[in-house]
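I have been asked to look over a protein record a colleague put together. Thanks in advance; the entry in question is below.
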Amino acid sequence: MKFIKYFIIALIVILIDQTSKLLVHNYMQIHEEVNVFGQWFRLHYLLNPGMAFGIRWENEFGKLALTVFRIGAMAGIAYYLMRSVNKKAHPGFLICLSLILGGAIGNVIDSTFYGVLLNNAPIGSPSRWFHGQVIDMLFFPIVEFSWPDWVPMVGGDYFLFFSPVFNIADSSIFLGVVSILIFQRRFFPHVEHKEISSASPTEMNNVHTESNPSIVISETSETKQETGNNS
């Protein structure tokens, strides 16, 4: 079917995401860190019990509610992708939706099954199902230093720019969302066309005149000629 290729993109994201997570789980210890490219790109094994950046709901059913929300969001994105394909949306927009869908499914797999398959549910969880923790490993400490002692307020403090640890699924979602924001005019040109079409005749005439200054010159010449004839 015509939307299969976009689901294949999502599937590729899922496979890469899950492979990277299982490799980290099998070959690294929690909080172990491995340098990949110097000091600025590292693998750092963390378990995330909540949302992005470790945000979580501190109650017994918070994780379950979060997992259910992720499943609902995943289904909604998949449905919207199929509708967009049927409406012949811009291919770039469809690819972005595929990246978002693949990332969403990748994290849903962690939340739904990892508590059982990898036994990584938080201690005290009412059930290992739907309480799995998401595996994060990508760490980019771009700038890392300690402030000099003479700097007011922060002297001697440790500073780290870009401290979040994330995974392939998070990256895929981020890339898809940011690309839609950057290229929205290219993805949705009909929206701008509708705005122009809904403008009043006076506004349309002003836009047409501004874009064609020769019209102003022509109209001015014709006005002068008519005035001369009348006199």
User: Anything to note?
Assistant: Residues 199-230 form one domain. Residues 141 and 163 are 6 Å apart (CA to CA). The beta strands are 33-37, 41-48, 134-139, 143-146, 158-161, 165-166. The chain has eight helices and six strands.
